DNA sequence: CAGTGAGCGAGCTTCCGCTTGACTT
């Protein structure tokens, strides 16, 4: 479609000016990239960035355009009953930017969408197309390395938009929205508000929880072996030097047990025929070998070879930055971002280990200069793609440019310097020769005084050519592990040479539970399971930390008890969704869609509404799981965890975790690691003093009065009996309830006095008789009130509880109960007329904060609205929104569950939808596998 | 997690992936 563009660059001229007049607007994703590319393209091109995605489904109610507010599906942003059509709005923070792009486009004669060549990039391009509505020719421009040649080639070889790829992205987006926005509310209802669930975060949380479960179930095993130090100097070795350590391998040909021979339950694996030694066996054997003669029984030499590690991608960089620089995932990404923006490194969010040709030659150039030609392989090394679902839109993370700056040449310092150095070394090393050397295994035999043949082994490693290890050695997550460049030298020995055991000792070991995840190892695990993307790894950690699903203990990620409850709920009721294979299967489907071999709709339908799987099994859809089957989820059950070996239950309550033993309860510190909650720990918690404040003794009863914090806030209560010292609980439960009372609002837990407390405990106060019935005054759930039989009246102030007279009480009871809010409270502010109703609008203060009303309709002020500055227009808008939404007026008498309510609501809304839609939609029968365009729901703003 | 007697104007929380500033503490 577009005219041919200048085939510039052949003569090496710096300018790649387009032929003819006019300019092309090139849109990439990142501003830093735009800057670089602008330099490569030269005149005739204007390069701007989209700054990531420009549109998405509305995040919250405030972002839903008014005309969709009444729709049942508006909350989801996906019209689930209308072929899962998504509703897109321009992100609030992108409105100005989109306007700018439109203005730039007005001056261009061609639009080149140069977003990344992956699923998300293709989608960004499509959204740009939808939003900018260009009238000039549009082409898709793609490249996956940012070098002058690659960019110029890309500008000359554009293609059309790949709509199948866009559909695949949209399917992914819709699925994630449905999962997140349907399952999270289940957690709000069953566990705690503000929690969240999602395809990625829930699996990440589950991984951490499962690891903790393994730790809880773990029983260590003890095993012993022998460690010897042999002296080879009498063996005729030329240097005569040396002693070396060796470990006992077998006794009478039977291998000595090591850690991996044991199960996590502390038992020996049944398939192992090994010699398991305890302390006594080991010590006695050591005794019998004392003074025995030893000799070398075999020497085995093998060549050692090690190839360099692939250049960094996001996850490997995060891991090494964690191991070597102590940076969290987030910190590593922030430092990398700064390096990227200032032109020191290539893009840091990538799943590719590929180097561009120019990067390869830059690396080789550095190798030659810094290490010499001996370290340079004949051919450049190519790294195969490591990651299964890699989309490879970018290069590996490497120093930027066609020639690399050494760390010293950059002038950087601090973490930027250290991370650059890491990246630089890793990149250069990736183009160096293998390390080579020799590994040696020596076996040594000796016979004990009881004629047992004990065989020891020692291993050595000698590196004769360091190759890439000269530049870079990868760190390890296990601090005890040997790094790749670690040498262990053994004296040279011949078979049959006699050895003297200098030292021979029994050594005890215990198996260890699997280590907790760190940020870096969790990210690694997620990548291996194809969960999450380079741009999100750091924020996944952030999310599960924010939600309180995990907390950090040093670098370890420890799951909270809350996480156990949430994971328990998801596993039992949404098993498919937290299946580790779920995302991997999703990726397959998305790939099929992208290739045009599968359709999006049937798949989404089955996910949401249920149906037959390809295997012919029937599957319950998400809609039913969060709807009709909601009542199957027992909050009590999913929030309970047994404390191993006890009849104590750990329960996750709205106010944190607590222990429950037959109704006796005690708080559990929020930062207690679940694997530390043993029987002993639980007993200790029950025994602990609760930390209540003692106010003194009630002179009348002699009981101690304490102030504590409870479910309903601060309160005081009396202590009925001294806790029996070390004794058992009193069995005969002739329970006398202690008197309790909430503090008045005017009181404070820290300052409340014994006098206050006694007054509170004296309640309810008998005010007197009214109409022949006794009236009492007390404090309750809704504040101070009077009670007369079954009738009641609220009081104005707490003090009235003590001061009100029978006469005043009678007056209150003579008046009917106040209905609605108290009359005659002046409005906070008066506004103008509501154009819709013609009534005067006022702002009032209510139970839920300020709201605007025209006398008929009430609407709360939203976030960002202020009483003082609210204008008439905004007020009218709020009222209009409220009207649009509510059937409000007369509600059917509230049935039992939320399910029935939502079904009813959906019924009416669905009707509206169909009438509206029949005009707007229907006609353009959607082509399968094509993204929606003509009937797109958008926020025309 | 202490324990009691209204009637009412709710609204909001949340997902995953792309990307940076512009704000305030």
Secondary structure topology:
Layout lengths: L23 E5 L2 H11 L3 E5 L5 E2 L21 E2 L5 E6 L4 H12 L3 E4 L5 H14 L5 E3 L7 H9 L6 H28 L10 H17 L4 E10 L11 E9 L2 E2 L23 H11 L4 E13 L7 H12 L3 H13 L15 H15 L35 H4 L3 H16 L5 E13 L5 E13 L32 E13 L8 H10 L8 H10 L3 E4 L2 E4 L1 H13 L8 H14 L4 H10 E3 L5 E3 L1 H5 L8 H4 L1 E3 L6 E5 L2 E6 L2 E4 L11 H9 L5 E5 L6 E7 L2 E7 L20 E3 L11 H8 L3 E6 L2 E8 L2 E6 L2 E4 L5 H4 L2 H9 L14 E5 L6 E7 L2 E5 L4 E3 L11 H14 L12 H23 L16 E2 L3
Parallel strand pairs: 1-2, 1-6, 5-35, 6-7
Antiparallel strand pairs: 3-5, 4-5, 8-9, 8-14, 9-10, 9-13, 11-12, 11-14, 12-13, 15-16, 17-18, 19-20, 20-21, 21-22, 23-24, 24-25, 25-26, 27-28, 28-29, 29-30, 31-32, 32-33, 33-34
Helix pairs in contact: 3-5, 5-16, 5-17, 6-14, 6-15, 8-12, 8-13, 9-12
The protein binds one DNA strand of 25 nucleotides through α3, α5, α14, β21 and β22.
Question: What this model shows, in words?
Answer:
The chain has 941 residues and is of the alpha+beta class. It contains 25 helices and 35 strands. The strands form nine sheets. The protein has a six-stranded antiparallel β-barrel. Strands 2-1-6-7 form a four-stranded parallel sheet, sandwiched between helices. Helix 9 packs across helix 12. The protein binds one DNA strand of 25 nucleotides through helix 3, helix 5, helix 14, strand 21 and strand 22.
